[in-house]
Amino acid sequence: MTDIELIFTMLGEATTRNKAVEKDAQGLDENKIAAQEGGRAAGKALGAYEKEAGSKVVTDKNFKQQIAKAKRQKGVGDEK
After folding, report:
1. Nearest of 42, 44, 18 to residue 31 by alpha carbon
2. Rounded CA gap, 46 and 57, in Å?
3. What do you get for the CA distance between the two ends of the chain, in Å?
4. pLDDT tens for each residue of 28-41
């Protein structure tokens, strides 16, 4: 995950949390609505950023791949 991907993920999570607190969401259904609203807001911001930057934010990089690569480079987990 790149820094920009992480930023937009955090934006969606923070927006969702703020919506839930603002609406005093109780239970699954109300929190689901807050999550959808937070996701829409982050999605709009993501779309605007990608349009301005001229490139996609989401990549195929993920933490598991980064850990596996680091372990291979260090020889961690290799049986001797």
Report:
1. 18
2. 8
3. 32
4. 999 999 999 999 99
Token pair for residue 64? 């598991």
Q: How many CB atoms lie within 10 A of CB 38?
A: 20
Q: How far apart are CA 77 and CA 9, in angstroms?
A: 31
Write the pLDDT tens digit of every residue in 60-76: 776 677 778 888 888 76
Q: Which two structure tokens, joined as six digits, stand for 49?
A: 């950023």
Q: How far apart are CA 33 and CA 37, in angstroms?
A: 6
CA distances from 1 to 11, 14, 59, 63 (A): 15, 18, 7, 6
The 10 Å Cβ neighbour count of residue 58 is 13
Q: Which distant-in-sequence residues (6+ apart) come within 8 Å of 79 by Cβ?
A: none
